[in-house]
Design goal:
homodimer, alpha/beta, TIM Barrel, three-stranded antiparallel beta sheet, 15 helices
Chain lengths: 377, 377
């Protein structure tokens, strides 16, 4: 049976693509960056700011939400979109990645992964079937298959075992998803570490099963950027051109630009908010560290050309003071400024692809980052 | 020389008063509650939310700001109103209260208080003259005299000594303030602990010196509410009816209602934001503790009759989840909800006084608080 397609490719420029993905809670313009609302909230941001920044879709973490407040509870409260008041498209991960990174006493077998909650130590099991059930209870517009992600570097045998297990789990996830209502989507995840042949095998195996879209997982887990880009170059061309492609957990603005150039449509990362909490601002001049003492007396805004009010209206001196004083407002403003910067980058990327000027845009953007920040006054 | 008066009394109802205080950065409607922007920021709030909530004036803490980022630096950056982007009226305390509560190795003598910074241990001195100089550098619309505040209970002799010292410092502050530009104000502070005669002496001494307005200090420092209200009853009637009266560091919604009934015009307190960070919401039903498990499955908002969107639009279940998960958004929303509640209370108080129905309003408001929260569903 053919899997329905909710993705419309609007234009390409080289390998770069722009399109629209229609979900039950609205349309997502691609390439899209999904801000991460870990446990049903964006850290330091109001939902209206996420919307105003231009995000069409956000990501929720199944692992966090299944532990607290619980998937059944969120279902009874009308689903994650309504619970959070976001009311727009949401993608959830499968929980697998965070079971690997956060949970205690983790054991993977053919059937499932068992672990203990990092909150209260409760013994829990996440099977492919339960991962789908939880995501359907949450009401995710886009659910992800359960997979096993191996941290790099790793042995070939380990990478292959995890990739094959992920393929078998992909099939079980697909079956568990069969009764989902029309319009909801399930993405398979290409694994295979840094081994080209395993990436090929994984992609082909997933295509045989058939998904609404395809993710590339197991990257941005410690490998150099060249390896990440090489693996995208191995996997992306194999994936069906008419389906969305999502690079999980990526990344810096430069990672995104380079991955778009290689045919990726969707991204997610905690970097805008996490780095914001640590005093780092993303700008057209590259990253700016507001902890640096050179900002203490600087009345200039981060970027007076920005169309985002907070980027234009707060002085570097004030942001520096807030960061040095650990004032919540510092984390709030920089998280908001970074979220807006990422969304602005995606908007510019989409426009450049649509206009057939992506390569020029990519070079100009990289040049501005490399030129760096304004000279001190 | 007569001290100019920038306060206009618009109406009274019993001892309760409503008026307007004109500052260089705008008009303050009284009775007014000043949210506390400790170190140049409201904890968990954007400035636009403070404005939208209806606050006309905010308070900055001289002690925090003189340590970091420094008064001279803020002056060079255009003053505290511009530095923070608040751009509205600001009152600063003298720094004395926080020297007493936060600084190390504090020593008071006739000349000044010496102490060590709680941030880096630097040895510092705060004299009446320096307290005024710092506040003028910050550009406060309303500066406060340096005083010595005694924590209650305390010996009569201690209270009297501190009160007399505060009077001598009041005089020095007044002299130091003489060159301030027109429109900027200096308030004296009535001390005297819980001793009526000392409160009288303090108030009369300050009136002899002459200030733009008068504060009542040294309350809400551990004494029962009856003592606080009794001391207001001793001091307020002595103070000039045509000058604003400010009760420092107060308080709960009930404290405010009762103090307004006794002729107070201005308040400040960290309670809306501090209690918000701890999961407590102020509502027309009294305080609601969002940590309580009974909210976990409750889809109802805190108060569907509220005119503040966040009070109406987020479910108790979501707020409970955010608080239990220590999500920043929980602190942000409850700080905002509480700030809006306090400002709504002040607006209603002003309207009730203007309409000559303050006593009826006071009883009705207290009844609603005492009835308590809605029954569980």
């Amino acid at each position: 049976m053919t899997v329905p397609n909710h993705f419309e490719l609007l234009g390409t420029d080289g390998a770069a693509r722009t399109g629209r993905l229609t979900t039950p809670h609205g349309v997502v313009r691609t390439p899209a960056f999904m801000p991460v609302g870990t446990a049903g909230a964006m850290k330091g941001l109001h939902w209206r700011e996420v919307r105003d920044a231009g995000a069409d879709i956000v990501l929720g973490n199944t692992y966090h939400l299944m532990l607290r407040p619980g998937a059944e509870r969120i279902a009874a409260l009308g689903g994650l979109q309504r619970f959070t008041t976001w009311n727009g498209p949401m993608l959830t991960d499968s929980g697998g990645f965070q079971v690997m990174s956060l949970a205690q006493l983790r054991k993977v077998n053919e059937q499932a992964v068992t672990f203990r909650s990092h909150i209260d130590g409760a013994a829990l099991e996440l099977s492919p079937e339960r991962a789908i059930e939880v995501q359907r209870l949450l009401g995710s517009d886009i659910a992800m298959q359960l997979d096993e992600c191996v941290r790099l570097p790793a042995d070939h045998a380990d990478i292959e075992r995890a990739m094959q297990l992920s393929l078998r789990w992909a099939e079980r996830c697909k079956r568990a998803f069969e009764t989902a209502p029309d319009g909801y989507m399930l993405f398979g995840i290409v694994q295979g570490g840094d081994v080209p042949e395993l990436r090929h095998d994984s992609a082909r195996g997933l295509i045989d099963i058939g998904f609404h879209g395809y993710a590339i997982g197991g990257l941005a887990v410690g490998e150099p950027q060249e390896v990440m880009l090489a693996m995208i170059e191995e996997a992306a061309p194999i994936l069906p051109a008419d389906r969305p492609r999502y690079l999980m957990g990526v990344g810096t603005p430069e990672d995104i630009l380079e991955a778009v150039a290689r045919g990726i449509d969707m991204f997610d990362c905690v970097m805008p908010t996490r780095n914001g909490r640590h005093g780092l601002a993303f700008t057209q001049y590259g990253p700016i560290n507001l902890r640096n003492a050179k900002h203490a007396d600087d009345p200039r805004p981060l970027d007076e050309e920005s169309d985002w009010p907070s980027t234009r209206n707060y002085s570097r001196a004030y942001l520096h003071h807030l960061v040095k004083s650990s004032e919540t407002l510092g984390a709030m403003l920089l998280s908001e400024i970074n979220t807006a910067y990422y969304q602005r980058l995606m908007r510019d990327i989409r426009a450049a692809i649509a206009a057939g000027r992506f390569e020029e845009f990519r070079l100009r953007t990289r040049e501005a980052w490399e030129r760096g920040d304004l000279p001190p006054r």
